[in-house]
Each structure stands twice: as C-alpha cells, then as structure tokens.
Amino acid sequence: MGRERRVVHVSSSEEMLVLGREVASRLKPGSVLALSGDLGAGKTTFVKGLALGLKIEDPIQSPTFVYMNQYLEGKYPLFHFDLYRMKGEGDFLGMGFFEYFDASGICAIEWPERIESILPQDVLKISFAHEEKGRMITFDAMDGFSWA
Hints:
This protein has a domain at 32-96 and 109-133: Rossmann fold (3-Layer(aba) Sandwich), CATH 3.40.50.300. It contains three helices and seven strands; from the N terminus they run βαβαββαβββ. It has helices at 13-24, 43-53, 89-94, and strands spanning 3-10, 32-37, 68-71, 78-82, 106-110, 124-131, 134-142. The model has no long low-confidence stretch (mean pLDDT 91).
C-alpha cells in the first residue's frame, strides 16, 4: 500500500473548521489521525471542526493537562489526545490509551511524535504549518482514504 499526499491552505479559523468537518465526513470508526505541528498551528481548531462534522455538540477543549478528552454523543465517539507533556510510548501504554485505537471511534492525536512507533500503520498523518497568510495543512493518507 502506498500513501497519498494532499496539501491544503487555509487563511482563517473558519476555514480550518470547514476543513475539519470535511475530513470528518470521510472517516470511519477506528480512524486514527496523527496531528503534528507547532503550538498555535491549528490542531485543536481542526479537531473542533472534526467534532462539528461528527455532530458533537460539547465544546472541544485541548486536553493538555489530562492527556485525553472523550466525546461520546456524536455520529462516532471522538477521542482527542494531546501528548505534549507525555514522555513517551511507555506512558501512553501504561495509561491504557492504546485500547482507544480499537474503540470504534475516531482518535485525533496531537503531538503523535511521542508515540510514533506504536501508531497504527494506516494512520492519517496531518501536518500543520504556519504560513504568511494562514496555515498549510499536509495530509499523508494510506491508499483507501477517499478524498472524493
């Protein structure tokens, strides 16, 4: 299986929310998204868009100090991880978070570099970068993820 790359440019938070909604419409239970990028690059705003697309009405908060927030009432459950403060894979496994990869929901993982070697092979990698007039988002998806 190969990977397909797509690059999108957004110039506002509203466009980031729309992009998140669009991606949510293409996800299926068990999808894992690895969201990489600097602080303030738009990862949490993108997750807010995912939640909108999944019909989740609860406000989305960055789980920086608790590592994971779960939202169960939408089309599919959303498990939002922020691993910024996590030391590594041992912590992730020790907290039982690995189980969420098979929990029939959507896992959105900020700072996935902390657990790179234990991510599923078919993870959707999404990189966020600052640009002069907004953000550049690069999607790196396995064959089978549909952009249509």
